[in-house]
Each structure stands twice: as C-alpha cells, then as structure tokens.
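S1.2 Input.
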Amino acid sequence: MAIRVGITGVGMVTPLGNDVATTWRNICAGQSGAGPITRFDASDQDVRFAAEVKDFNPLDWMDRKEVRRSERFTHYAMAATRQALDDSRLDIAPIRDEVGVLIGSGSGSLDMLQSEFRTLLYEGPDRLSPFVIPVMPADMAAATVSRLLGARGPCFSTTSACATGANAIGEAVEMIKRGDARAMIAGGTEACVVPISIAAFAKMQALSKRNDDYAHASRPFDKTRDGFVMGEGAGVVILEEIEAAKERGAHIYAEVIGYATTSDAHHITDPAPGGAGLARAIRRALQKAEIAPEQVEYINAHGTSTPPNDRNETAAIKTVFGEHAYKLAISSTKSMTGHMVGAAGGVEAIFTALALRDGVLPPTINYEYPDPECDLDYVPNQMRRAPIQYAISNSMGFGGHNAVLVLRRYEG
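S1.3 Output.
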C-alpha cells in the first residue's frame, strides 16, 4: 500500500508575527509586514525598507550559549521547529534514529560573512572568530536543529534560491515514502536583511524602490509592480506517515499528495518564456497526486511582485489549467510577508495548509491596477471564505529552480 504523508505540526517566524497564530491572523487581515529597515543604518542604500522579523528573542527558544554560537537564520529555524514540534505533540525520543531534519537556506549567515570580511580586511586574519565555519554555512540550521533535538535520521540542507523551502518539504516527503524516515522536520529559513543583500538585490533591479510608500511596495500581479520587498524568517513543518500519525492521535493539517521540481535551464534570473519550467513542474506534481487540473481550487503563487515572475507564472498557470485557470483563486502572500527567499516555500506551504483547514483564502494586497498579462483571480485585497479540497503552492528560484507542492484537505 502506498505511503501517505501528512503535515502534523507547523511553526513559523515571519515579519507578521513570531508564531503561526499571529502570522495567520495578520495574513487574513491583509496586513503588510514592510517597514523602514531598523537592523542597520540604511540611509546610504537605494532601498531603505524591508519586511523584518520584529521583537524576536532567540533566548525564548535556545540557551544563551547556543545563541552565541549560532546565527539569526539558525535562531529562526530553531524557533519555528520547536513551535512545530509542540504543535504536533510528537515525542521524538523513542524514534530519534528515524526522525530526520531537512531545513534549507538560500544564503546561510550573511551577517557573519559580512562582519568577518570586515574583520579580515581591517584587523587581519588573526582577529577572525573561530566560529565562522561552524555557524555560517547554510546547512548549520538543519545541523543545529538535529543536534539540539537529538534527531538522528537524515539531515542536510537544500539550497535552490527562492525554491529552497518547498524543495526541502518535497524531498522530505519523498524520504518518508521510500522508508528513509518515520518523521521529518522540514522547511526553510533566511536572515538576509543585511546591507550586502539589500544593496545587491537593489543593484540588479529586483527590489521595489518605493521608499516613501513601503506598505504598498509589494504588489504582485499589479500593473505598477516594480520589484519585491526583502523579507526574512522561517517556516517549518512536521511530516509523518499518516497511519502512524493517526495511531498516536495526531492532528493532521493536510496531506501532501504531490511534489515535483524542474529546472528552466534558461537564464540566471529570469524565468523561462511562458513559465515553461514551472508549467512542467505543476503538471508533474498533479500527475503524481493523481488528480486532474480541474480539481485544483486554490494556488498560493510564488508571486514576487517583479514584472518577469508574475507575468511568466500567470502564463504557466494558463498553460496547465487552460480555461480552468480563470476559475482558480490565486494569491501571493508575499504581498504581506515580503519575499522570504529560502524561507518562502516553507512559510507558503503552511499558509496553503491553513487555507485548506480553515476554508480561508488569503488576499493579494495592494492589487489596484490590473495588468492585461496578469488577468486571473488573484483574490484582490481582501481574504475570501471558500471551502477547498485541493490546493498547490508554487515556488520559483533564481537559477531556474521550480518546486510545486500539491496538498489535499485531510478528512480522516
């Protein structure tokens, strides 16, 4: 009998709240998480705003020694993981050899990289911290979660730019299906509101420059969109084989019934024309889910608010769904969280599961001026109540990465 995998716990740290309940409430209310950058002096930057995590205290989730020996992207991952484990009520101690960790990050610790380069240049190599290598690489979030929780199953990090979190969840599902783990801790984390990241993304014209109107800067699918808003945080899920979860009386948010990933093999930043790579991933994910395109009711879009992404993602949806594309509800929660890069896919998979659970479709805020090339139903500006059975979460990443998750509402 085929192994079925469900989401039994969720945890997140976002620009809209440091837990799931707060974030989801603010998402449904259509609140923007964007604001002036406070983490550093951005007065000399072209872009002086971002969607920062606010009022976060890592000591709520890790002891002081571990906080000192790790970086923000790991702190966010640890907080989201502990929330997800508490939510799932999964005791990993008796099965620790069969619990894996797959938490990805697009960049790892840019804070550490930037500060230690400054030390190297101005103070010399003898002044470098001995913790540069142990805390900076992208795999250290997963490694730290594994070490502190004693999860001794498969453990590594995915890195596929903005598709990282979705790839982590999808690959974790496949591990459970092939018997490599009984449960997986999976998702993405990112802490990229740092000077080098903001400056570099601005230089390549990827960020919105609405410094005087930051709350309305992220406007996916809107004709006047001019780039994304940098975000940060983490989104982590607990994945379990459904029969085992049922036996222990776990709450199951949703079943992950399909996953596919493809490469555009086209351009270092722009999607393939017509979103061809994403369209292939959606088709494959639906085939693996064994459902028809017409059964999908909601899409949590990648929806970055850049002109190329939104145009090509819309084209990909039309290619796969045909006339049904115009009956789909589609929203970009990045209009509120900003673009959380490696964390985006994890957080948006959770939003998709919550939409299935609650029958609530998040809005795409700041949608004011329709774009003739983006002419679908983007759930503009206000959330919508609609009971749904099937939904997908799209993720696309610089380098041509595409990852698609198909979720089904769990009904026992």
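S1.4 Remarks. The chain has two domains: 5-247, 259-409.
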